[in-house]
Specification:
By secondary structure, the chain is an alpha/beta fold. The chain folds into two domains: 3-183, HUPs (Rossmann fold), CATH 3.40.50.620; 197-287, Alpha-Beta Plaits (2-Layer Sandwich), CATH 3.30.70. It has helices at 3-31, 46-59, 76-89, 104-108, 113-133, 144-148, 154-160, 166-169, 174-183, 209-224, 245-251, 254-266, 286-293; strands at residues 38-41, 64-70, 93-97, 137-139, 230-235, 238-243, 271-274. A hairpin with a 2-residue loop joins strand 5 and strand 6. Helix 1 packs across helix 9, helix 5 packs parallel to helix 7 and helix 10 runs antiparallel to helix 12. The longest helix has 29 residues, at 3-31. The termini are far apart.
Length: 294
């Protein structure tokens, strides 16, 4: 398909999504009826960014604040990108330092690690942000696909803290979210998923700042080599590199292979392995929760 034809297809798709956008805005207005000031747990990913943009559309920028949790599990690149997206949307950002690493249950890194992380975030928002920012509600970007996945223990924390999940309540899937983000021309509309750095460490292997820093450095280096989407799984001395399927052949080409090895070793790993299965979302958690449910 030519670039012209591709662009026209994209425009047609956006026009087709306009009625859906109007429907979503109307539905969100109903869900947020009575909310005077909303805090959005914000990461800069496409889900929370769409929620933030829609909330600004419905309530106005003066009644919405993005709340960004900052800890060693958040890569510096992601922190910067989140601020850029919020600025594009026109929403103010409040950073809150989270200390999930102080929690032994989080460091133990069981399948419920995400619960302890989200519980810490929502607790900090309750303790440090709600009163200061005069929030009457807090929401986060769970979508309808997330709500059906068994490897999302953070949802339990949201329920316990009475955090709203408007995207899921409106039935918006990940595909819906991306399409609507493109209609709004959000800069993160096509951004690959970026789970927290702790998700790169196998369950029951201790999470600590040194390991998180190794993963962050290695993935930053891979982006510098042109790999937009990657995971560096931390297996002690071994870095297991997951790349998008379209990048696998390129990664083993002589001109890049040596650069990848050098870059990942510079992050503190001794051995570098390329996983031929590509990127595998939930690869550490899904097998454990599925066994538990069997």
């Amino acid at each position: 398909m030519s670039n012209t034809a591709s662009a026209e297809t994209g425009r047609q798709s956006e026009r087709a999504d306009q009625p859906r956008m109007a429907e979503v805005v109307e539905g969100l207005a109903e869900l947020l009826a009575g909310v005077e000031r909303l805090g959005v747990a914000f990461s800069g990913g496409v889900d929370s960014s769409l929620l933030l943009a829609l909330a600004v559309e419905v309530l106005g920028a003066e009644r919405v604040v993005a709340v960004l949790g900052v800890s060693p599990s958040l890569a510096a690149d992601e922190r910067t990108a989140a601020h850029d997206v919020a600025a594009f949307i026109g929403a103010p950002v409040v950073e809150v330092a989270t200390h999930e690493g102080d929690n032994p249950a989080y460091r133990a890194n069981g399948p419920d690690r995400c619960f302890h992380c989200k519980d810490e975030l929502f607790t900090r928002i309750s303790d440090e942000v709600i009163a200061v920012q005069r929030l009457t509600a807090v929401a986060y970007g769970e979508n309808a696909d997330d709500a059906r996945r068994p490897d999302r223990p953070g949802a339990r924390a949201a329920t316990e803290h009475a955090v709203l999940r408007p995207l899921a309540d409106l039935g918006l899937t990940k595909g819906d979210v991306r399409r609507l983000a493109r209609v709004l021309e959000l800069p993160c509309a096509d951004k690959p998923a970026a789970p927290c750095l702790a998700s790169r460490i196998p369950h029951f292997t201790r999470v600590d700042p040194a390991k998180l820093a190794q993963v962050e450095a290695a993935e930053h280096a891979l982006r510098g080599l042109g790999f937009r989407d990657s995971r560096v799984r931390h297996h002690g001395e071994v870095a297991r590199v997951e790349l998008a399927e379209g990048d696998l052949a390129r990664a083993v080409a002589p001109d890049l292979r040596e650069g990848i090895v050098t870059a990942v070793r510079a992050a503190g790993f001794t051995f570098v392995a390329l996983d031929l299965a590509g990127i595998q979302s939930g690869a550490f958690t899904l097998p454990l929760v599925q066994v538990a449910r069997a």
